Amino acid sequence: MGLKEANTEKVYHVKSSDLPISCPTKEMAVWNSHPKVYLPLEQSGEAVCEYCGAKFIVKDD
For the chain, what are the domain ranges? Predict the structure, then answer.
């Protein structure tokens, strides 16, 4: 199906145009992951998933 394995990295860089961001993301297979949670990246530009500890950082080039 082409989906990435969920929760395999500890840091994910995302673009502000991708907000809102959930963990796992829509590109990840969720069958073997934790429940989907939306992360509050809008104010600080960073957030950590409370389930898996993955850090999401907004990085626009």
Answer: 11-58
Measured distance CA(29)–CA(37) in Å, rounded = 14
Residues paired with residue 12 on neighbouring β-strands, in sequence order: 56
Instruction: Specify the amino acid at residue 27.
Output: E
Cα–Cα dist 2/17, whole Å: 22
The CB density around residue 11, as the number of other CB atoms within 10 Å, is: 10
**pTM for the full model?**
0.81
Helices (H), 1-61: none
7 has a pLDDT exceeding 90: no
- Identify the CA nearest to 5 among candidates 23, 21, 28, 27: 28
